[in-house]
Amino acid sequence: MWAFVKKEFFHIFRDYRTMVILFGIPVVQVLLFGFAITNDIKDARIAILDYSKDEVTREITNKLVSSNYFLLVDNLESDKQVESEFRKGKIKQVVVFEQGFAKKLEKEGKANVQIILDASEPNTANMLNAYTSGIINSYSLQKIRESSGIPMSISIEPKMLFNPEQKSVYMFVPGVIALLLMLVSAMMTSISITREKELGTMEALLVSPLKPIQIIIGKVTPYVFLSFVNLVVILLLGFFVFDMPVNGSLILLLLESLLFIVMALGLGILISIISKTQQQAMMMSMFALMLPTILLSGFIFPIENMPVPLQWLSHLMPPRWFIIIIKNIMLKGVGIGYFWKETLILVFMTIFFIGMSVKKFKIRLE
Q1: Cα(67)–Cα(345) distance, rounded to whole angstroms?
Q2: In terms of CB atoms within 10 Å, which of 92, 233, 296, 322 comes out highest?
Q3: DSSP 8-state class, residue 337
Q4: For 137, how many CA atoms within 13 A lie in the half-sphere containing its CB?
Q5: Rounded to two decimals, what is the model's pTM?
Q6: How confident is the model at residue 365 (pLDDT cuts 50, 70, 90)?
Q7: What is the β-pairing status of strands 93-97 and 44-50?
């Protein structure tokens, strides 16, 4: 019995794939969940629109910036700039101080601050509003103590852009579209070539006059159509069941989604080519795509709140760029001029995955 147990240990230690599953995946999951899953606000990009430009507004601005929750990226000059900055995705919040802020606070005991937020991510918007309100209220109490109890108050008015009702479905539907298209498309194609290997029909393909690129395109084409049908069904459900708007161009949304589908299918084919069995291909698809897509794409947890190494790693996640694109089209109603960089990244990834698939494709069976 002891000899048999030792044999099993040696067998496990010799198989690096088993060792990765036993020890590698738990460590990676603990690190990802520990660092990525956080609702803390850190270095949220904000802008200030100060019509008063007095000592009090400067003090409040300094309080906000020195809290380490906010990162001041711009000082706006006009309210006409506000929506444009939000559509560009440069900021998450604008703090607006009214004209004569300090004078009103001194003479009338009351002044107004407006907090404008990007509510396409309602959870983040609510947290930013709470943090900002807390800092401003703390400053107001401090001024009351300094003035020997003379009552004064700063009225805070939040305004939510792109999602006034703060529906969480506005955040989840774009993320679910990216998640489903990524997983379903990649998983469907990841087993296509390994299935041919296991069924023994790969020989017929290899002796045919088809070139590797033709085989790959032939494998991908049916799944492009099926995944596109899947996309249309998801969009219809989002619109009719959850009242998810499409404020931008529907044709542009479909074209960008088609690009993402082809990219995901190319990745699935690459996984299928480098895998030896269907089981191995499925495992790679699940562990390499599912958790990173959920945790590192910005689908649920803000990327800017993550440690810098995870932020760098998130750049390799295709869903990160696709979620930015569909949120801009569906919620902000903007054109490709606002997300052409993200589109180019997806194009590059598509070319890379298909190119690597052709390069790794073996014309002889091992």
Answers
A1: 34
A2: 322
A3: G
A4: 8
A5: 0.80
A6: very low
A7: parallel
Q: How many CB atoms lie within 10 A of CB 43?
A: 12
CA distance 139 to 356: 57
Q: Which fold has domain 44-161?
A: abc type-2 transporter like fold (3.40.1710)
- Tens of pLDDT, residue by residue over 59-112, are 999 999 988 889 899 899 888 888 888 888 888 999 999 999 988 888 888 889
Taking only the tens place, the pLDDT of each residue in 246-272 is 888 999 999 999 999 999 888 888 888
Q: Which of 319, 306, 353 is nearest to 38 (CA)?
A: 306
| Cα 27 to Cα 49: distance, rounded to the nearest angstrom | 45
Domain extent listing, the chain: 1-36, 44-161, 167-360
Extended beta strands in 43-189, E state: 44-50, 70-76, 93-97, 110-118, 153-161
Distance of CA 208 to the CA centre of its chain: 42
* CA gyration radius, the chain: 26
Q: Given the structure tokens 């299935």, which residue do they identify?
A: 195
Helices then strands, each counted (H, E), the chain:
17, 5
Tell me if 330 sits within 8 A of 234, measured CB to CB: no
C-alpha–C-alpha distance, residues 106 and 264, integer Å: 60
